[in-house]
UniProtKB/TrEMBL annotation:
Entry keywords, A to Z: Hydrolase, Signal
Family: Belongs to the glycosyl hydrolase 3 family.
Pfam families (alphabetical): Fn3-like, Glyco_hydro_3, Glyco_hydro_3_C, PA14
SMART domains cross-referenced by the UniProt entry: Fn3_like, PA14
Name under which the protein is recorded: Glucan 1,4-alpha-glucosidase
Entry annotated with the keyword tRNA-binding: no
PA14 domain residues: 497-650
Amino acid sequence: MDAHNRQSPRARPATPANLTRGALRRRLLARACVVALLVALPGLQAAEPARPWLDTQRSFEDRAAALVAQMTLEEKAAQMQNDSPAIERLGLPAYDWWNEALHGVARAGGATVFPQAIGMAASFDIPLMDQVSSAISDEARAKHHRFLAEGKHGRYQGLTFWSPNINIFRDPRWGRGQETYGEDPYLTSRMGVSFVRGLQGMDPVTGKPLDPKYRKLDATAKHLAVHSGPEADRHHFDVHPSRQDLYDTYLPAFEALVKEGDVYAVMGAYNRVYGESASASQFLLQDTLRRDWGFTGYVMSDCWAIRDIYTTHAIVATAEEAAALGVKKGTELNCGNTYAEHLPVAVRKGLITEAELDESLTRLMTARMRLGMFDPPAQVKWAQIPYSANQSPAHDALARKMAQESIVLLKNDGVLPLSRDVKRIAVIGPTADDTMALLGNYYGTPADPVTILRGIREAAPQAEVVYARGVDLVEGRNDPAATPLVEAQYLRPSPGANERGLRGEYFRNRDLSGTPALVRVDPVIGFSWDRGSPTDNLMARGEAGPDEAIPADNFSIRWSGQLLPPVSGSYELEAAANDGVRVYLDGKRVIDRWQQADRLTASSATVQLEAGRAYDLKLEYQEGERDAGVRLAWRMPGAKPPFEEALEAARNADVVVFAGGLTGDVEGEEMTVNYPGFAGGDRTDTRLPATQQKLLEAVQATGKPVVLVLTTGSALAVDWAKEHVPGVLVAWYPGQRGGNAVADVLFGDANPAGRLPVTFYKAGEKMPAFDDYTMAGRTYRYFEGEPLYPFGHGLSYTTFDYAGLKLDHATARAGQPVKATVKVRNSGKRAGDEVVQLYVHPRQAGEGRALKDLRGFQRVHLQPGEEREVSFVLDPARDLRHYDEKAQAYVVSPGGYEVQVGASSADIRARTPLTIRAD
């Protein structure tokens, strides 16, 4: 028995047997009064001497230490895993540290979905990112307290969020590059610091906490530090970057988030760095993170990365050795079960001491206390955020604003903006009406997602908008989404009803039994839920089900109503589901596939239908585990093959909008399904998928003006489109209002000003080996060839002139700030934003040094003819430093530099020399 659990005879409490009846009555009455006071005034818990960790007058660190001191060894180990169990005798509730908020609260049911991280980086707008991250944290807090009120303590319901991903997007083939802020360390740092401050409740200007006592959320900088693919190799490869590449490219964003953003958590990576597991690295976690940067928060492993230490990496031989090594090297929290199961064994074997566990666990408990988890909600400012903040109209408008600002106009030969007089628009392509093209990965469930097709229809009510998907996203996918959904106008929930759609009954079980937990009318049956990390069986993933009343797994739905065919003839009726689905028409079962499926799988039936008749329709669906989705689709009589249908739509249109590119279904995290051009979630070919390229060329050959809208999380080698298509823009994965934002840009209601946060390379460019982490030949900083589109590129519907670049000191010491100013004028006829970018180019670049570095940017709005002076402050000690391998330190080399200001890394409008003299 542990010493702190023993009681001396004198300390033994009196029992009812030792008391008179009157004394017992008085004691029970007194105890009832105390209980009543504790319920009425939660703050009085602080006075309870047996639980000093509830004493709000003590420091969080003291309270955490007092709580840890009461735990057994096994309890301590269990609290160091992500899904920490309750300890009822201590009044400690269960808590799961695993939550996601990459571009909105993810996998926790309904939440506002902002553009994917790579898209937000394309905005180059820090003040707007401040607003977005603050909105995300408002929703996270509101959702957490709603979950608590419902007695829920599970995954995706807490306050510790594993975002942002600030790895450098060094290679366009990496499937998870969409989660990052691009290829540049400076842009990544600025976006990352802003995001962290918004999540953690800090003033965006001063960086000081808005509440001096309680943090709003915990943000997590991931994945420290050299981690960007290949996805298939991440559990076993060992990276040995040059120290110059490490310190000049891979570490700066992490350092900025620690020192400037005060990020409270850091996640290690799966791979090794210099032979050490990134989640058990003396060099990364102890020497760099804590000693050099002064990090005071906690470190966690990526999921099951501690297990990799003894399995795939084989650094040690056993699980208990891996657990001990992880804690000793500085990883306090284990996503997985290695700590819980094997740390007690490690202590008993002498591999680690219980005191070392106490130190790590105290840091974790301090983090929870600083979030207010152990204090009366009335005392915690952030607990007062109302649930109405979640998916609020203001956040919806903010999602649209960020989507507008993220769109990059790559090319415009005068086709844009589209005329309001256009009569017939053909919207063609596989991502035009696909909700997944809006979302990317790590997302929540949007209330009313607007696809590109819908956005165009809403923006152009005067025009006839004809849609044809044309082709699948990629070759060999046999995408069920290729078959058109049965639209709401052909469905009604009951005979004679004016409402359109089908009546949905949602059950909290898989067999449609009992009373439905939710009943509603769904206009169309085209849903995709529960899209989490695609790491095989390792992670329980997903968005909550169709509503928060329904679990993420093990539910079923029955839709019923009537089908109203518009013409007579032979229809192909199709139901696709992951997992089981059945369809009944006039009481006859026409589709029956009532088993689990690994992915969305379609089944079809050919049926004869007559126009003017109403057919009773019933669709039953059941979902087991993980990804969930269901669609009711059909092909009408006489429908042409999809490719020919698209060409016919183009021929009959005044203008064509081709929406293509990628979705999170083909690029992402460690996927198991591969297609031509894709492997494990990464890409082996950066060109537009062949199916789409063939259709695009055929559509362009019709002679109609074409605008190409790309949905993607990475660079696409659209060489052919650059040469032949008059208008090209990149929408990324633009979030829940992405379709509206694209339409806003197409019709000129929003003037595009997004900039590329990554280099777009030509299709024939020979890239360095994907698994080579040397920066030579990568990104605009080291690439000496001619890109297809350079980093920072983006056009506008107006023009801007630059003039008068000057420095307040043309010669300066390494520690002397230098102010650069330049005049920027809107020389066009439309109001618009210009992203003014400042780069520094060393005139005598040494071996391994970057050709140039972004060191400032401002997004400014100017009316036609308006001129503004834009200023930047260069701190040579920060902005001109580079790592010197010989000195084994950052240095500022004296000599000549060129300060460049322009509209992209390649479009430099003004230059001036700067000399740094040796002290």
